[in-house]
């Protein structure tokens, strides 16, 4: 038994908490950062192609090639960057659908990830935590 004098602190025996996360959980976020944009881009290209074939009402400003002002082509480095962009057909529509798909897929994957993690995760409280309060409030009656 420890000597409990006035100048020593009382400490509960601590168990070493499991702080390491399973390697699978560490890699899921990294995989999602790569997979979501790739799937979104591929889906955006296919959706825009399908929409154009079936006469979907895309705004005319999003369709066709992007035109840059003449000063872009006279600058030293900008033609190297603007050339591939100017040659891409329907870039505005693809970019808009891409952003919508990124938001949707990230939301779906994050929700599924959270549900799976909640089922598999370690318990919320460990042995050294205080138990949650068991207080039930009275119903308010006037």
How does this model look, in words?
The chain has helices spanning 23-53, 70-74, 78-87, 91-120. By secondary structure, the chain is mainly α. The chain has a domain at 24-120. Helix 1 packs antiparallel against helix 4 (91-120).
Shape: elongated
Order of helices and strands: HHHH
Low-pLDDT residue spans: none
Helical proportion, percent range: 40-55%
* Percent range for β-strand residues: under 5%
Cα separation of the termini: 55 Å
Number of strands: 0
Oligomeric state of the chains present here = single chain
Q: Which properties best describe this structure?
A:
0% strand, 142 residues, mainly alpha
In short:
With 142 residues, this protein is mostly helical. Helices cover 54% and strands 0% of the residues.
Topology, element by element:
Layout: H1 23-53, H2 70-74, H3 78-87, H4 91-120
Helix pairs in contact: 1-4
């Amino acid at each position: 038994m420890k000597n409990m004098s006035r100048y020593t602190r009382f400490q509960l025996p601590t168990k070493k908490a499991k702080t390491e996360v399973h390697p699978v959980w560490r890699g899921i976020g990294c995989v999602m950062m790569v997979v979501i944009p790739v799937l979104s881009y591929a889906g955006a290209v296919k959706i825009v192609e399908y929409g154009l074939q079936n006469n979907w009402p895309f705004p005319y400003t999003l369709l066709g090639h992007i035109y840059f002002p003449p000063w872009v082509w006279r600058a030293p480095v900008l033609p190297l960057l603007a050339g591939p962009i100017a040659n891409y057909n329907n870039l505005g529509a693809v970019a808009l659908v891409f952003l919508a798909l990124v938001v949707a897929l990230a939301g779906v994957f994050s929700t599924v990830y959270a549900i799976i993690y909640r089922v598999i995760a370690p318990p919320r409280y460990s042995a050294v935590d205080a138990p949650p309060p068991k207080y039930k409030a009275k119903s308010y009656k006037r």
